Description:
46% of the residues lie in helices and 12% in strands. It has 492 residues and is of the alpha/beta class. The protein has a six-stranded parallel sheet. The chain has a three-stranded mixed sheet with strand order 4-3-10, with helices on both faces. A three-stranded mixed sheet has the order 9-11-12, covered by helices on one side. Strand 3 (76-82) and strand 4 (85-91) form a beta hairpin. The relative contact order is 0.10.
Amino acid sequence: MANLNRSNAPFERRIGTSAPDATGIVHLGIGQFHRAHAAVNTALAMAAAGGDWGIVGVANRSRRIIDPMINQDFLYSILQLSPEGTDVQLVDVHRRLFVAAEQPAEVLAAIADPNHKIVTLTITEKGYNADGVTGRLMLNSPEIAPGLAGPDSATAPLAQLAWGLVKRAKESQAPITVLSCDNMQSAGNTTASMVLQFLEAAKVDSEVLDYVAGQVSFPNAMVDRIVPGTNEQTKTQVEQILGLRDEAPVPAEAFTMWVLEDHFKAGRPAWEAAPGVTFSEEVEQYELVKLRLLNGSHSLIAYLGGLSNSPTIPSARDKDFVAKSVQAAIRNEYLPSIDPLPQGFDPDAYIAQLFHRWQNHALGDKTARVGSDGSAKLLQRIPEPALRMLDMGEMPHQMALTAAAWIACVAPPAGFDPGPIAAEMEEPQRDNLAKTTAGAKDIGEHVERIMTGGYFPAELGERAEFTDRIAELVEIITTDGVEAAANNALGE
Ligand code: CS2
């Protein structure tokens, strides 16, 4: 089977148009999500309004995605999978790809290049290196600390971004926009704050700080499209439709949404031409809707699914007790926490659509994918809405269940085996959690050590009633199973 490349590509399947050779966007963290979201919307924007918006894609360490893309003349396909059918489309917007760990100076040079007007980021929640307790940049972390000494020792994307802006300040002072496409509350403001904390700790000149304050914008944005990992089956399905071998396809659902603040210092693609893209001044409300209703519930489905032998999100969501828990989480806990809702937003339609999206067996999103990195993701999903209810004297049972199921999966109490799906979940704090809980005399102490152990904000860790409820639910998970725990949380 021939490999996809520019000479054999079926361009009638192309999304939007191809980028020109000129690049205007630098993307840090090239992976599945960027390739099925911002890259697609950029292709559609250029088809509508042109522009020099070719993308320089930077992978942090791995050549896994960029090597096949380079072999395929930067082309790759989106395998759109939904109950309504399967479709393959091509994307052709990347014009340079490299690995930051191999060419760190190139990352800084790309950010400093005045032709580049936007840096987009998908570096995952943990890539912002926020302290779980204070929310501040973890200056002493092994990712961030070495980079404070100077640009040559920066390896974390956030540190490289900061030094790239320093270089730009020194060389051209050209304005630029940094656009976070990660699942974070006030994603743009948070990115700005982390970059500034880094620059201050690195003791850069005040002119640099003035440049960042005046010439660099950090719009907030809410991004949404469920994009699982690629496996052999993805490649086979693409091959059957294209008649060509693509070694870097991206499976994705049909749904896509992007709500952004229109604060671009040096221009932007006409993204509004792409379906599902909206410019709005209510982005932070949309972020809350998405982080809580979608992502918060997604975590609940993943951990309940992980503990009940459901390898995929749709197989977990099909279980009655999971569906009921998620309804309760949304209706009783997450939805009331968002006030005001964005104008014109229809919660019932949005929730119905979420349930439909989680039922996408064709996409088969993995429970282990969504359950990975819980220590960083849950911080965006649980503390604020949980504290809101606790302050009103109400118990957020479903958020307690989410935390309990996460603990049971990645920091199981002695003697409890959460099974193979939980073992597949990547958890950067797994070793630390094991240290924190080693020797705890019972489940109560096990959970209390986690809740007060630096993983969650202190205000939440101090709420003994919440910790006790989590411990009760962990206890039930380990004795009677996760369904019994879910029924208990539902008051049944
Ligand atoms: C998921 C997200 O990884 C997760 O926890 O909730 O990746 C989710 O699929 C996306 O945010 C959908 O836009």
